[in-house]
Amino acid sequence: MNFEKLTLRSVTARPVLVPLRRPIVSKVGLFDQWPMILIELATEQGIVGRSYLEPYLKHAARYIVPAIHDLADQRKGRAIHPIEDYQNGRRALNLIGYEGVSMIAVSGLDMAAWDALAKAAGMPLAVLLGGSTGPVPAYNSNGLWLTEVAGLADDARALVAEGGFNALKLRLGRDKLADDLAAIEAVRSAAGADIKLMVDFNQGLSLGDALHRCHALDRHGLYWFEEPIIYDNLAGYAQLTSELTTPVQLGENFFGPRALHQALSMGAGDYVMPDLMRADPILAAPFELKDGFLMIPNRPGAGVEWDEDAVRRYQYDG
Fold first, then answer.
1. How many angstroms separate the Cα of 42 from the Cα of each of 8, 18, 46?
2. Exposed, middle or buried: residue 51 (CB in 10 Å: 0-12, 13-18, 19+)?
3. What residue numbers bound the domain in which 271 lies?
């Protein structure tokens, strides 16, 4: 395996604001537009690594983009070594904390660096990291929000049809247990009794409410309970995990491997799900979906390119 040595020349970070076909309605807020930060890491050898961040809040780009540029300026003219650069980036920002903006900025550069290295090696990033390309089972989470129960059936049918999905994610945490039960029934009636149904509370419950609600739903054959309580209450997650039959899912809001290690050591969940981010209209080549599988492409790098017309249309100043 031959690797071309890469030297960092420059980094650009462009905020874009993408309109959502299905607005997000959840316990964490209402969003009809989705912010992203598109990162390009240019090397002296002409290879460009790409990555993107989804910071949830439109104005977060004001803080994240300068942090990315500051980190990149320290590395200009140096060889790209993602593992070493990741650790150095964290140390450079440790006085303001390892989480939040610090970790997001470091991670954006880290992903772009790995993309560049995989391109230099002429290999898909998955293969470079020891995996393989091909189909990966997927579920559709781009809908079934905390909206009126009457509209969930049509939403479920549309989500299944988008890629032949046999698994969907439904948001729960309505004011009444009966309404959550009605939402589950509406989705299953529309998508079929065999549909795998993950449910996500988006951290919307107190521990007491979560224990009551999840115990009440524990016999309904759900695939997992995702983030019923605030993400950093690991003792609460450990209690839920020990008491419930349905697997408990967390990890979408972990900042780095230390939080993951702590959760696992405490028995704070059955599944962990680091946020891998989603494809959207900015991407020139979103991955193919077929029969409920995401088809990982066999091309160098992470497989991500930009649709520059869409970038120009949705770019904003942050």
1. 6, 25, 7
2. buried
3. 134-279
Burial class of residue 268 in the structure, from the number of CB atoms within 10 Å of its CB (0-12 exposed, 13-18 middle, 19+ buried): buried
Torsion angles phi and psi, residue 157, rounded to 5:
-60, -40
CB 75 within 8 A of CB 137: no
Threshold 0.85, pTM exceeds = yes
What is the C-alpha to C-alpha distance for residues 20 and 15, in angstroms, rounded to an integer?
Answer: 16
- Structure tokens, 98: 């390892």
Establish if 300 belongs to a structural domain: no
For residues 151 and 262, state if they share a domain.
Answer: yes
Contacts for 88-94: CB closer than 8 Å, 24+ residues apart? 90/256, 93/67
- Structural contact between residues 238 and 268, judged by C-beta atoms closer than 8 angstroms: yes
Listed in sequence order, the residues at least 6 apart from 204 whose beta carbon sits closer than 8 Å to its beta carbon are: 26, 27, 28, 173, 228
The CATH code of the domain that includes 248 is: 3.20.20.120
CA-wise closest residue to 296 among 285, 304, 308, 288: 288
Q: Do the Cβ atoms of 43 and 8 come closer than 8 Å?
A: yes
Across the chain, which has 318 residues, the per-10-residue mean pLDDT values are 81 96 92 96 97 93 95 95 90 80 90 96 94 93 96 98 96 97 98 96 97 98 98 97 98 85 95 60 67 91 92 91
Question: Running DSSP on this structure, what letter comes out for residue 287?
Answer: P
Q: Assign residue 215 a region: left if phi > 0, alpha if psi is -120 to 50, beta otherwise?
A: alpha
Q: Return d(Cα 142, Cα 26) in angstroms, integer.
A: 12
Q: Which of 100, 122, 144 is the last residue of a domain?
A: 122
Q: What are phi and psi of 60, to 5 degrees?
A: -65, -25
